[in-house]
Amino acid sequence: MRDPDTMDTYVCSSWYFLRYADAKNNEKLFDREKANYWLPVDQYIGGKEHATSHLLYSRFFTKFFKDLGLIDFDEPFTNYFSQGMVMRKTVAEDGAKKLEVMSKSKGNAIPVGPFVNEYGADCARVVMLFAGPPEQDKEWSDEGVVGANRFLNRLWRLITTNKENIAVHNNLKINNLENLDDNAKRLYRQLHLTVKKATEDIENIHYNTAIASFMELLNELQGYENKGDEVFSKAAFGFIWTIAPFTPHIAEELFHQVGGEGTIFRFGWPDYDMASFVKETVDYVIQINGKVRGHITVKAGLEEEQLREIALKDKKINNKLSGKEIERIIIVKNKLINIVAK
Question: What domains can you pick out in the chain, each with its CATH number?
Answer without folding.
Answer: 9-82 (no CATH), 143-277 (1.10.730.10), 281-341 (3.10.20.590)
